[in-house]
Design goal:
Residues 1-27 form the signal peptide. Keywords: Signal. The protein is of the alpha+beta class and 193 residues long. The chain has one domain (33-171). 18% of the residues lie in helices and 37% in strands. It contains two helices and 13 strands; from the N terminus they run H-E-E-E-E-E-E-E-E-E-E-E-E-H-E. The protein has helices spanning 6-27, 160-171; strands spanning 33-37, 43-47, 50-53, 56-60, 74-78, 81-88, 93-100, 103-111, 124-129, 140-142, 146-152, 155-158, 188-190. The strands form four sheets. It has a four-stranded antiparallel β-sheet, with no helix packed on it. Strands 5-6-7-8 form a four-stranded antiparallel β-sheet, with no helix packed on it. Strands 9-11-12 form a three-stranded antiparallel β-sheet, covered by helices on one side. Strand 7 and strand 8 form a beta hairpin. The longest helix is centred in the N-terminal third of the chain and has 22 residues, at 6-27. The protein is elongated, with a radius of gyration of 24 Å.
């Protein structure tokens, strides 16, 4: 058994104190990078707002916009097409990129949501509604339109059926044209009781 003199024993509590103080600070360091590998071995890295594909700079975003810690950041592969989903925190948006060779092409942005089979049809969907302001009268509300998308056959397309279903669930009615006469969002509807 090793022997320690009093000098060593006095230093030990200081080392523990430094360790205890330092650990939470290290644990709270914000994540600034994401690393993915596709099934065809494409290396996709997102670091400080830049998307790199196979080491090549493919797209630049605001470095502060990406929520690096979000579980919504992910790769989705469908019939040979690779899609990169990035959660953009300040806008509450999900940015979608198609990864092709060393390129990252912006496909669309949608309301930030999980990417999963929302309507149980065997396909992945994502989307939702943007935040809207409250209507100033208690008997009415602004119509809250949703926009859902489906991943199928290597493409992302609007999912009209899910959008209508969710609009009816949220608003009690589906409006094909939710804009008011001034072309702004959205029409006023009576509140459902």
């Amino acid at each position: 058994m090793p022997r320690y003199n009093n000098k060593h024993m006095r230093l030990l509590p200081r080392h523990y104190l430094l360790l205890i103080i330092g650990l939470p600070a290290m644990a709270q360091t914000p994540k600034k990078g994401l690393h993915f590998t596709s099934s065809i071995q494409q290396k996709i890295t997102v670091y400080n707002g830049t998307i790199f594909v196979n080491g090549n700079k493919a797209h630049q975003l605001d470095p502060e916009a990406i929520n690096y810690g979000s579980k919504r950041n992910r790769l989705v592969e469908n019939e040979g097409t690779v899609f990169l989903f990035l959660d953009i925190a300040p806008l509450q948006k999900l940015y979608v990129f198609r990864i092709d060779h060393s390129n990252a092409d912006s496909v669309l942005s949608a309301a930030s949501s999980d990417v999963k089979d929302l309507d149980h049809d065997g396909l992945l969907e994502f989307g939702g509604s943007d935040a809207t302001q409250a209507y100033p009268s208690a008997d009415s509300a602004y119509y809250v339109p949703t926009h859902y998308y489906e991943i199928a056959r290597g493409r992302i397309t609007p999912d009209a059926e899910l959008t209508q279903k969710m609009d009816k669930k949220i608003n009690g009615v589906y409006l094909a044209n939710p804009l008011n006469p001034n072309g702004q969002c959205c029409k006023v509807i009576p509140k459902k009781h």
